[in-house]
DNA sequence: AATTAAATAAAAATCATTTCTATTTAACAC
DNA sequence: GTGTTAAATAGAAATGATTTTTATTTAATT
């Protein structure tokens, strides 16, 4: 596990610092989307003296290197980060437990064609985020959703 | 035109103020997505004394009433607003000229089914934003895109 | 162990957005 | 039209997330 991260960091010419590894470990353990401040609070249990800017900087660097990815939460204006996944822009987000799952999105090609037909321009990128309840939360129907 | 706006405002129990109408006229004229500050600058040519908070407040109220809608721009963290359109969450955004077009999205039902099959939970909402070049900008290939 | 460039802490700055309060104004009744 | 009232506004200040700055520390390499 740690070796994977180290290798990935080396490829990006990022030094392997305890804090950087800790951030990745937190994101890996949680498999939930977290804000910089949430991550910072978790880090402070291990590092008494860690600054919030350090967390921001690291998250940004890791996101640039595609080790983690950035998403939007619909009801907050902050960005959240998440461990690597195959399709960086297709998320299913559980609004109850905040778990993030990839969605198997074979419709995308069709969509792109449809858009090109409508717009007659060029598609460069997209943001697709689907919000709902995951299996478990749907059963429990937490939060009155 | 103005009557349409007045009627819509009345339905929402919002008073018909010159500034409120001006905001709607700007958004209608431009048919491009604009940030609060951009709108504010345009308003100041007509109203010397208009505060940015007034613009924010109005945009928020109008968005709540579905007279305008809010979208995300991928490379800025700000929200942008746009005149009413039929499908509030499906936008095609030209990264060159910032024009916003609706996309005729008949694939959505399929997508929802696909997600439900994968996740086995519940879909509550989604954000779909497609970025690219509109017909005109694609021809001109502005901005090196 | 010494060197060097990157990473960090801490404080301060920035920037978008929101809140607060006193004043103004639109809507409505007369 | 004039008066009344609740909503809208200006302007200043507050907020809150994020970024920048600078001096110090540390990881990587020799």
Task: Describe the secondary structure blueprint for this structure.
The structure is a homodimer of 145-residue chains.
Chain A: H1 2-11, H2 18-30, H3 36-44, H4 52-64, E1 69-72, E2 79-82, E3 90-94, E4 100-102, H5 108-119, E5 122-133, H6 135-140
Parallel strand pairs in A: 3-5
Antiparallel strand pairs in A: 1-2, 3-4
Helix pairs in contact in A: 3-4
The structure holds a DNA duplex (30 and 30 nucleotides).
How would you characterize this protein structure?
Two copies of one chain form a homodimer. Chain A contains six helices and five strands; from the N terminus they run ααααββββαβα. In chain A, helix 3 (about 35-45) crosses helix 4. In chain A, strands 4-3-5 form a three-stranded mixed β-sheet. A two-stranded antiparallel sheet of chain A has the order 1-2. Chain A has helices at about 1-10, 20-30, 35-45, 50-65, 110-120, 135-140; strands at about 70, 80, 90-95, 100, 120-135. Mean pLDDT of chain A is about 75; it is low at about 75-80 and about 85-90. Chain A has two domains: about 1-85, Arc Repressor Mutant, subunit A; about 85-145, 2-Layer Sandwich (Dna Ligase, domain 1), CATH 3.30.1490. The longest helix of chain A has 13 residues, at about 20-30. With about 140 residues, chain A is α+β, with helices and mostly antiparallel strands. At the A-B interface, helix 5, strand 5 and helix 6 of A face helix 5, strand 5 and helix 6 of B. Strand 5 of chain A pairs antiparallel with strand 5 (about 120-135) of chain B. The structure holds a DNA duplex (30 and 30 nucleotides).
């Amino acid at each position: 596990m740690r070796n994977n991260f180290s290798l990935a960091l080396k490829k990006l010419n990022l030094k392997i610092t305890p804090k950087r590894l800790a951030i990745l470990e937190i994101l890996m353990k949680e498999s939930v989307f977290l804000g910089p401040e949430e991550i910072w609070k978790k880090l402070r249990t291990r590092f008494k003296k860690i600054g919030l800017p350090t967390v921001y900087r690291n998250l940004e660097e890791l996101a640039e290197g595609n080790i983690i990815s950035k998403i939007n939460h619909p009801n907050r204006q902050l960005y959240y980060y998440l461990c690597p996944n195959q399709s960086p822009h297709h998320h299913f987000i559980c609004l109850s437990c905040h778990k993030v799952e990839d969605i198997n999105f074979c419709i995308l090609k069709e969509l792109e064609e449809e858009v090109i037909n409508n717009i007659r321009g060029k598609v460069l990128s997209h943001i697709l985020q689907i919000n709902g309840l995951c299996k478990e939360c749907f059963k429990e129907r937490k939060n009155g959703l």
